[in-house]
């Protein structure tokens, strides 16, 4: 049989490692003949944008190039599959194409919305009695998928955030005057990535002094009070804030944010929380203030990838192939943690139905009562995920990258 | 005799390497007894904030920790020395303190404004017949100092910019739709750092497709025309733009930028050019658009430091000590390039008088006639400066950093 793999949703540093896992396990298996990649996810598949991958990643150097290339080499999409009723024709088209290319298994590497897509395909497949297997391979820097300890891509993003925030702390602390530095970190409804800055405490950092997540209501007046409190001890106040915090301005009116709905009805392009707070601090405290967005760098910095993350991403891809060959369909491959120290995991299968459309939030009990800091109890969760460095092949002083 | 070193101006990834060079050469020299560091530059020196450094950086591990720590371990300032007439009392205070601590040589590691400070001190010293030597050690990611081929700190910033922009290119090119990504890079009046993205061409990158520097007038209508032209060939248009470009909006009115004067009368907190252009693109072209500021990360990312840069920064510190011991004063240590390939430099001395207050701009002849791209002729200038990687000591998956 042949197989097809596709990538969907926002880029991460580990999504190509999962593709590599799917590819390598498939190549080692005699049952699988042709390995197709669909460009631009299910949207590209519908347009028959297929490319045969066989032979592309067989040598160690080819594999390493794919592994160290961030984002998605196959391209991505943000395409929402319509409901089967009344729009069956999209599904008929997809299954016609699957037949045409003699696809026995479909692997979709993506986040929450992608799991919704693969879930719908698996359900339709069951409905029409198709033998094709549909397997979800998770990835998201948001770490907000249910029924998995964490998601591939998250560890590398967290390693970038820890490394970069530490450098920003050094940068922000050089002058002998009061200053506030606000670092805005990705996370729409879940504060996992922002919370991960707590790992810096293991290395003796006191900053960031304040951490705000979307899981807690954010009151501007409380924020100003918190900053004033920290200023009693630290000239340079460092604040980490999720992009997704919902600012309750009360009387602190601000007009600086715009929100756009994306294709899934989510609020998109949230960036702006940091800048809004920068204006608040300038107005209320009058001190030097700077907002910094870690922007797309936090999801695509392969040069700072976590080796633990990349290894797991590759393994979870391999396990996806094994699951499909064992006849399983409609599952997401997921990570079960067995121990924090020494860190140990195993790859298990989760019914897609329990994953798609749900979001896993950062645990309330790991946030302080004041809602402005992460408890030490969270550190053993995050720390293993950022261990190990990728050895990066370079050319002319710059990382080499693969382009399909 | 004793010596004192201080750091001033904006952080870089190489400024501590220069301090290490001063320290090591001083420790290897019997004539020098105590090595003082002044916290927060000349401002801290005036407040007698001195710390004795002897013994702190003698082992290879101590040295490595200092080398891999970004920003300034001694702290910094943006303090402008008043003119000798009519304000001599500040100078009297400084020279009293120099006497009190039996300082024979003063080393100031900084940029343009810091060279102004050390120049004034050297002049005053000559005027009063002081035997104390004043040596300027250059650093700035802006690369805008006159009479030096380039400045320590620039190579590491350029290596960060090249690596990160390449990753952003991957991130920005995943969707099958028109998009414009605008990357805002530091550079107030000089476009060196923005222009350095041209090194990516050596690795086969076509993007960034458009590059705008402050050396050329920037017309919004031309920018829109340029983007439309690139869109004919590339769905994902990548633009690199200096923070210092002066937007001529003509009829494209925009109110999004605010400018603040810093202590030297410079326009400060320029950040905002990218965001302003983002609004223009959204309004005029209506496609997906994102502005990304590389912000302070481009000047403090030691984890991506250029080894060539760090070695030169350390050497230039060492040569500063040698110059002082030979009796020289009132000079900046500077870099003379002997060859691009194989790359070769030597450290020479430049009279401070020809440096302070002047700015070196990016050469006109390395910008295309259209003013929107860098010519290939600039690549051999930039490329050697980003070669070599720092081996970074880590703990718990995060770089170790030194704190005084």
For the record, give the distance between the C-alpha atoms at the N and C termini of chain A, rounded to a whole number.
Answer: 24 Å
Multimerization state: homodimer
Largest interface: A-B, 57 and 57 residues
The CATH C-level name of the largest domain in chain A is Alpha Beta
Overall outline of chain A: elongated
- Count every helix of chain A, treating DSSP H or I runs of 4 or more residues as helices: 12
Structural class of chain A: alpha/beta
Beta-strand content of chain A: 15-25%
Largest sheet of chain A: 7 strands, mixed
Number of domains of chain A: 2
The helix/strand order of chain A is: EHEHEHHEHEHEHEEHEEEEHEHHEEHEE
Q: Kindly state the mean pLDDT of chain A as a whole number?
A: 93
Can you put this structure into words, describing what you see?
Two copies of one chain form a homodimer. With 404 residues, the first copy, chain A, is an alpha/beta fold. Chain A has two domains: 2-153 and 302-356 and 391-399, Rossmann fold, CATH 3.40.50.450; 155-300, Phosphofructokinase domain (Rossmann fold, 3-Layer(aba) Sandwich), CATH 3.40.50.460. Chain A contains twelve helices and 17 strands. Chain A has helices at residues 15-27, 41-46, 60-67, 89-100, 112-127, 154-172, 192-195, 220-231, 273-284, 297-300, 307-325, 379-382; strands at 2-7, 35-38, 50-52, 103-110, 133-138, 179-185, 210-212, 218-219, 236-242, 247-248, 260-261, 267-268, 288-293, 331-340, 343-351, 394-395, 398-399. Chain A has a seven-stranded mixed β-sheet with strand order 3-2-1-4-5-14-15, with helices on both faces. In chain A, strands 7-9-6-13 form a four-stranded parallel β-sheet, with helices on both faces. In chain A, strand 14 and strand 15 (343-351) form a beta hairpin. Chain A is elongated. Mean pLDDT of chain A is 93; it is low at 251-271.
């Amino acid at each position: 049989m042949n197989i097809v793999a596709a990538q969907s949703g926002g880029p991460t540093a580990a999504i190509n490692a999962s593709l590599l896992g799917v590819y390598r396990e498939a190549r080692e298996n005699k049952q699988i003949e042709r390995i197709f990649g669909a460009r631009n996810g299910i949207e590209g598949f519908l347009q028959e944008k297929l490319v045969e991958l066989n032979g592309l990643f067989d040598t160690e150097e080819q594999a390493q190039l794919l592994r160290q290339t961030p984002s998605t080499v196959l391209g991505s999409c943000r395409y929402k599959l319509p409901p089967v009723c009344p729009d069956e024709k999209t599904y008929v088209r997809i299954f016609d194409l699957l037949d045409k290319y003699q696809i026995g298994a479909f692997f979709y590497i993506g986040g929450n919305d992608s799991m919704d897509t693969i879930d719908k395909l698996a359900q339709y497949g069951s409905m029409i009695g198709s033998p094709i297997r549909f397997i979800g391979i998770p990835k998201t820097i948001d770490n907000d998928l249910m029924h998995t300890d964490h998601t591939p891509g998250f560890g590398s993003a967290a390693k970038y955030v820890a490394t970069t925030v530490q450098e920003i702390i050094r940068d922000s602390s050089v002058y002998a005057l009061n200053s506030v530095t606000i670092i805005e970190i990705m996370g729409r409804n879940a504060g996992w990535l922002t919370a991960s800055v707590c790992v810096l405490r293991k290395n003796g950092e006191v900053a960031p002094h304040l951490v705000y997540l979307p899981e807690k209501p954010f009151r501007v007046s409380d924020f100003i009070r918190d900053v004033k409190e920290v200023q009693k001890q630290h000239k340079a106040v460092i604040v980490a804030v999720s992009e997704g915090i919902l600012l309750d301005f009360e009387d602190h009116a601000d007009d600086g944010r715009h929100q756009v709905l994306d294709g899934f009805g989510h609020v998109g392009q949230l960036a702006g929380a940091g800048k809004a707070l920068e204006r608040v601090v300038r107005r209320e405290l009058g001190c030097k203030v700077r907002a910094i967005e870690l922007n797309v760098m936090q999801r695509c910095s392969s040069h700072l990838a976590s080796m633990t993350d990349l290894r797991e991403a590759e393994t979870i891809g391999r396990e996806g192939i094994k699951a499909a060959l064992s006849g399983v369909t409609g599952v997401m491959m997921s990570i079960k943690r067995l121990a924090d120290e020494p860190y140990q995991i195993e790859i298990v299968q989760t019914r897609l139905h329990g994953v798609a459309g749900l979001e896993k939030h950062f645990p309330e009990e790991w946030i302080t009562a004041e809602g402005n800091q992460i408890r030490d109890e969270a550190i053993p969760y995050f720390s293993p995920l950022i261990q190990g460095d990728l050895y990066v092949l370079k050319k002319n002083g710059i990382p080499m990258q693969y382009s399909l």
